[in-house]
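ABC transporter ATP-binding protein, Candidatus Fimiplasma intestinipullorum. Tokens?
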Amino acid sequence: MKHIGRIFSYARHFKLLLVSACVLMVASIVIGLIPTRLTQVILDDYISGVEYPWQEVSEAQEGSVNIAGQHYIQPRYHTASSAVVQDACVVIIDNQMYLVSGVSTVGEGSRHVVNANEIEITLTDGQRVTYPAYALTEQEMRDIYQPYISPVVTLLVVLAVLYLAQSAINYLNNYMYSKASIELATLLRYDMFDKMEKLPIDYFQNEADGRIVSKITNDTDAVRNFFSTIISIIIEGVFGFIIIYFTMYQLNAQFALLILCILPVIVFWIYIYRLFTNRYSQKIRALNAQINATLNENIKGIRIIQVFNQEKFMMDEFDKINSEFLHYRVKQMHLDMSVGGPVFGFFRRAAQIAVIAFFGYQCVVNGQVASYGIMYAFVTYLGNLLDPIDVILNSVEVLEEALVSSERVFGFLDLSEEKVDYDEEIPRPAGHVEFSHISFKYTPTGPYVLKDISFEVQPEQTIAFVGHTGSGKSTTMSLLMRFFDYEEGSIKVDGHELNSVSKQAFRRHVGMVLQDPILFKGTIKSNISLNDERVTDDMALAALQAIGAERILDKYEKGIHATVTNLGDNLSTGERQLLSFARAMLYDPSILILDEATANIDTQTEQMIQHALKVASRNRTTFIVAHRLSTIKEADQIIVLDGGEIIEKGTHDELISLHGKYYEMYLSQSNL
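Tokens:
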């Protein structure tokens, strides 16, 4: 619940739209009450209104009816132009109308016909009263409704206009709420994407890709649903309840007070329901994120899964998660069916029966008779009063899931991010790099992956790192790139402590090529320039030419503007690698890092990259994380790592002469 305020803080961006929607919703609620009152008027004053008092008048006038040669009119239509002869009333028994002269009403009770000229009324106290009566002809029964036709038609037209107006208002209201909620989700996704771009690398090492995607897509959509639903509940629930309850109180204060007494029971019911459904919602959301992460992992690794015939194992693993998701979904459904909307539907029907029973009791015990119109209005308003509660119960699951999602969304937005300072500039480094007694571990309680690492690289030198997987090669380069901050030891660039330099300012002078090159959907040029508008076609082409890779454009009709699909899947591994080299060369870095950049390429491409390395390493400090030792023979210094420690250091010839670890590795590759 603590995040509701933060959700609504986003509303300030479209507050005019939201206020307009709220005003329209209140207008819709008010307009929605009027048709019920008008229907009550039609039922009581016109359809049942023929049994209201009549008067026999001396002459015909507008609104009068001729019955058995005499003129009769209801007092509401009577004017002073004709004198009143006597009171009269109309009684309906078995679809037949009877005119009783001399009295304005025959009282309430059971009715039956004695003979053609008499009717008998058994009053509520058991007394029987007989009245002389005249049975109206079919024409006279039609004529008696004649004065009502014009006002009823007018009311029906007003009803139609009100329904059309309410529909139009509801359309605008729904459009505005939908637009506001969509804008909210858009802003949330933007902020989350912006946050993601600024998060430290270690977050992505510990969080599955699918979970991150789920937070930015599914969870923001759930918050959008929450926003639109909660607004509807607040406006309809609060304003609607007040307006409708006030109207019901005017109709019958006693029964309205009785309804108010049972309201705390309903509120407690909703509270208990929410308590149980929250437990399931959290589990369902967590499992949904786990499903997304598993799907993402399997899609990325589908080739490996199929090559090693692991389809059944992966299917079994997915089935475990999916079955657990189903288990909690069924529990949630059972809770909804046993406590939620369906049970409340029964309560609504019971409440309508209670209304009829209440008015029946008033009639039998107290002799207070309610008109059909009032009973209709009360039942209708009672339904309107319970609608918001019904909406709440039917939305509890959605609201709880959305609250869980909001915790994930704002928990993500509250993550500590890297300090970003794009405006800070530093002079181009000469490339003098010194590691001094660096020890590093990824987590405070985890093992050290680097232990007392010390080495020095002079400007424009090439240094290579070799060692088995997990020896600490890539971690060393990650520290140099400031992907992680070190706490033990020192790293200096041109004499400046690296931790004190702006990450963004330093990275502008560093180029990096990874073992698994990352390309983006676009073109060859956009992947070399990273969409920098300052880079021209000639500049991008020159970067390719610098590493001797311009020939890869020959097979593409559009040349440098050839399409690159997502992650560069339409290019070979070697082509992706060469584009990554061209990207690094374009920005002319003073420090170049090649993280096993030649590990996954063919011999011909390796020759091209060897040429590129000679060109790229001129006038810059170059760090190479090597897999193929043949590519680093000319390095100024080679460092051999094992278990996070430096075990050997020197040139290629020096290390070969030592007959140590490097010698063994080189010998094993040479014998392949």
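The longest strand covers residues 84-93.
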